[in-house]
């Protein structure tokens, strides 16, 4: 773990009772599998219990929002982490997929009032993807796990707010 990752991990809220869904795209599986492993390891390192983690797989990144919605509607969870990898090709399909997925996850966040984390690599080539899936650039799956824990902690901090005066 890099010094930057250690600093981020040390500032995470307590997560032993956090319940998370993870949706993993099967397309580009060697990459998304590494993202999933990094995500799971980070969650375990932060004391998230295995029985509080629900992982499902969908065919590709475009299907991530649908899988996330299924989890949000059918499981008792605090957040959903979506992991995928879209590598640029000869056409602009990657732009359409990335924008659609990002917008759909933001809409789900508003609809369900819980975090839906965008853990999708959007790279120019496979080498860049590998570097960001456990290589020299870190692991986006691990970063996504940390983002989920932070966002759940933030949301839970508002649930404890009594609605009193903020000092004004």
> Would you report the number of β strands?
6
CATH topology group: Rossmann fold
Structural class: alpha/beta
Into which percent range does the helicity of residues fall? 40-55%
Arithmetic mean pLDDT = 92
Give the N-to-C terminal Cα separation: 43 Å
Task: Describe, in plain words, how this protein is organized in 3D.
- The chain is α/β, with parallel strands linked by helices and 168 residues long.
- It has a single domain (26-158), classed as Lumazine/riboflavin synthase (Rossmann fold).
- The protein is 49% helix and 20% strand.
- The chain is built from six helices and six strands.
- The chain has helices at residues 3-10, 29-45, 64-74, 93-112, 126-131, 140-159, and strands at 20-25, 53-58, 79-87, 116-123, 133-135, 138-139.
- The strands form two sheets. Strands 2-1-3-4 form a four-stranded parallel sheet, sandwiched between helices. A two-stranded antiparallel ribbon has the order 5-6.
- α2 (29-45) links the parallel β1 and β2.
- α2 crosses α6 and α3 packs parallel to α4 (93-112).
- It is globular, with a radius of gyration of 16 Å.
- It starts with a helix and ends in a 9-residue tail after the last helix.
Q: What would the keywords be for this entry?
A:
6 helices; alpha/beta; Rossmann fold; 168 residues; disordered N terminus; 20% strand; two-stranded antiparallel ribbon; globular
């Amino acid at each position: 773990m890099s010094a930057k990752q250690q600093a981020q991990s040390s500032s995470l809220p307590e997560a032993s009772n956090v319940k998370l869904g993870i949706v993993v795209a099967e397309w580009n599986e060697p990459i998304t599998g590494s993202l999933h492993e990094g995500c799971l390891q980070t969650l375990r390192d932060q004391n998230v219990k295995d029985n509080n983690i629900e992982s499902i797989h969908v065919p590709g990144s475009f299907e991530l929002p649908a899988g996330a919605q299924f989890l949000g509607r059918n499981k008792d969870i605090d957040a959903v982490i979506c992991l995928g990898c879209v590598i640029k090709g000869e056409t602009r399909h990657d732009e359409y997929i990335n924008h659609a997925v990002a917008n759909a996850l933001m809409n789900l966040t508003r609809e369900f009032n819980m975090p839906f984390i965008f853990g999708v690599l959007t790279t120019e080539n496979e080498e860049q993807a590998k570097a960001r899936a456990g290589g020299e650039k870190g692991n986006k799956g691990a970063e996504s796990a940390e983002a989920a824990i932070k966002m759940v902690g933030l949301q839970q901090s508002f649930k404890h707010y009594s609605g009193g005066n903020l000092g004004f």
